[in-house]
Amino acid sequence: MKSNILVVDDEPVARQSLSDILLLEGYHVIAVANGESAVDHVRKYAVDLIVLDLKMPGMNGMDVVQVVNQLSPDTEIILLTAFGSMETAVEALRQRVHDYLFKPASPNQILESVRRGLERREVKLKERKQEEVEVYTTKDGVEVDLMRRTVSYKNVIESLTPAEGHLLKVFLANTGKVFSHRELVLLVQGYDVSQREAQEILRPLVSRLRHKLGAFPSLYERIVSVRGTGYVYELDET
Questions:
Q1: DSSP label at 85?
Q2: Which one of 43, 91, 109, 171 is most buried, counting C-beta atoms within 10 A?
């Protein structure tokens, strides 16, 4: 099924160029010229991801972000700007914007960001479906309680921090999926960083989680490092 992408830019050439890039990749694309039209479209139709210009007359990009977060919180947003600042970038991350790209972004940059944004959305939707299943039990009897953030077997109980619990939840909801370091930081911590920074953030977090799961081999052994990429959770026993 084609993903629905909304392109929002007041410059006709930029709007057409972005649309063409995405159409060639097989996405279903709608393009509008201002923030007001974007909000109106989101009110009426399902939108998986928005490629959004920051500086526009009337409703600017951040105005659109705030409204879309209320109307359609599952919609991922990529901000494009030629007039970026650190303050705006921080605010964008605070508003859970998926990515923040500077114009002129190359087609490869745009397509890679869109791909990661759609993957992030898919993972979040899967997590939501898993929310009703708050307790996982492996075939050998290890119980993972995601609500209480505990892992237990007989008389052995380990408590997880919120970050450790969220990381384990992402793994359990996506068994067999290879995540990059950057994707995991985005999903667990909620902000986007470079691949190098992501490795530095994840390494101690994964180490702490593995240490706590050491008493539960059926979980511990499934956290596998994929060299040069990230991690995969090879659990098929829950």
A1: -
A2: 171
Q: Rounded to whole angstroms, how far apart are CA atoms 122 and 15?
A: 26
Q: At 5, which helix (H) or strand (E)? A: strand 4-8
105 versus 129: the higher-pLDDT residue is 105
Residue 98 has pLDDT above 90, yes or no: no
- Would you say 206 and 223 are in contact if contact means Cβ atoms under 8 Å apart? yes
Reading the block at residue 83, the tokens are 């007039």
- Per-residue HEC secondary structure of 129-181 comes to HHCCCCEEECCCCCEEECCCCEEEECCEEEECCHHHHHHHHHHHHCCCCEEEH
Per CATH, domain 132-233 is 1.10.10.10: yes
Neighbouring C-beta atoms of residue 36, cutoff 10 Å: 16
Q: Which residues contact 79 (CB under 8 A, 6 or more apart)?
A: 52, 53, 54, 61, 65, 92, 97, 99, 100, 101
Strands 49-53 and 76-81: parallel
CA distance 132 to 34: 39
Which CATH number is 4-127's, of 3.40.190.290, 3.30.565.10, 3.30.420.40, 3.40.50.2300?
A: 3.40.50.2300
Is 216 in contact with 209 (CB distance < 8 Å)?
A: no
Residues 109-155 have pLDDT tens digits of 999 999 999 998 988 787 766 655 678 888 888 999 988 899 999 88
The DSSP letter of residue 34 is S
Q: Which residue type sits at 98? A: H
Q: Tell me: pLDDT of 184 over 60.
A: yes
